[in-house]
Amino acid sequence: MIYVYLAEGFEEIEALTAVDVMRRAGIEVETVSITGEKLVRGTHGISVEADILYEETDHAKCDMIVLPGGLPGADYLNEHEGLAKHIKCFAEDASKKLAAICAAPQVFGTCGILEGKKATIYPSMEDHLKGGQATDQNVTVDGNIITGMGPALAMEFALKLVEELKGKEAAEEVADGLLFGRR
Fold first, then answer.
1. Measured between alpha carbons, how far is residue 50 from residues 25, 30, 87, 100 in Å?
2. Which of 28, 30, 42, 68 makes the best surface tag, with the fewest CB within 10 Å?
């Protein structure tokens, strides 16, 4: 099970691309609202009905936590104490994965899990990686932490999530079906 967390002001393209691409790969994904309500409004006014509320999550059955960026969504994720607790536990378990894109890698910095790790974040937000080494890569993988730079790279980020969960062949199959990279 993969949880994609939603907060008011989340970046729609980052959240929904990750969900869509992983589901195409046959990965079980649920969107999780941290707002107390299932209907969550994105940063561009698109409302999405989350599959479950934070209070209904079971992180023992979760293999990956995915955080979309967007503001103020990433800031709200950054302030959620329960989510921070789960992120810290996942960081210590090599069988669990953590992923964040755009402004959301700041949550990993706040949680103190980037010390000595490479990560990427939306340009000009590198200070939020606290202890992490900023890369200029579109998507960076360091151990069980996957970070992406921003909205235009949502597809590349989502395909990397599939690759990390099901292998390169599965990611390539989904990419081919989506015509990703076709010229």
1. 20, 8, 20, 18
2. 28
For the purposes of burial, counting CB atoms within 10 Å of the CB of 178, is it exposed (0-12), middle (13-18) or buried (19 or more)?
middle
Average pLDDT value for residue range 145-155 = 98
Backbone angles phi, psi at 102, to 5 degrees: 70, -115
Our answer to whether residue 62 is catalytic in this structure is no
Other beta carbons within 10 Å of 116 = 9
Element housing 2 (H / E): strand 2-6
* C-beta atoms surrounding 80 within 10 Å: 17
Checking DSSP bridges between strand 64-67 and strand 97-101, what pairing results, if any? parallel
Cα-Cα-Cα-Cα dihedral sign, residues 17, 102, 138, 26? negative
For 89-128, the pLDDT digits (tens) are 999 999 999 999 999 999 999 999 999 999 999 999 999 9
